[in-house]
Amino acid sequence: xxxxxxxxxxxxxxxxxxxxxxxxxxxxxxxxxxxxxxxxxxxxxxxxxxxxxxxxxxxxxxxxxxxxxxxxxxxxxxxxxxxxxxxxxxxxxxxxxxxxxxxxxxxxxxxxxxxxxxxxxxxxxxxxxxxxxxxxxxxxxxxxxxxxxxxxxxxxxxxxxxxxxxxxxxxxxxxxxxxxxxxxxxxxxxxxxxxxxxxxxxxxxxxxxxxxxxxxxxxxxxxxxxxxxxxxxxxxxxx
Length: 239
Prior knowledge:
alpha/beta, Aspartate Aminotransferase, domain 2, 2 domains, 239 residues, 9 helices, Aspartate Aminotransferase, domain 1
């Protein structure tokens, strides 16, 4: 933080690691924001996909600075409609009014039928719906983990989210070129971490795999990774 800092943006559950902040974590972050007179914004788009433990929302934290807390979320992940680009923010009325002004001048609004559909989904969604989704993606998470281990990767089992990080045998080589080579050899495309992380020691070691594709595509992708086995994780770099 610097003297110019006015707000802190956090992400829990976290993309791409799957880390989930505890209530104690949030309380400590909120205290730092309070001590430095900052607004605290929490991106919680993966809150419905916590597999181990529970999600604690910044909005439930309370405290003297609750009026400076903003929670943002999205239909993209919860309902699997990433192309609709519909999200929302929960804040006190004064902040909400200002957010709407910014939104109006950036992109006017999302298509009205899509907004109505998301509103219907939010009214209809319940704990049973969320539980079924968690069970589905938990099983996919575990399936992908086993497949990556079999292929010789060193995956990290995420507590939440729809993604998994995995290291290759050749540490320090997991960049865009490695993703391109895996794509060409297997037809499976992981993503490099450089757009998520500025720490080269981490970004150069790990790739991000998604397990939110349609069932048939997901199973075929894992099968291809397993068949390739160690050849996947030890692909010589171009000279």
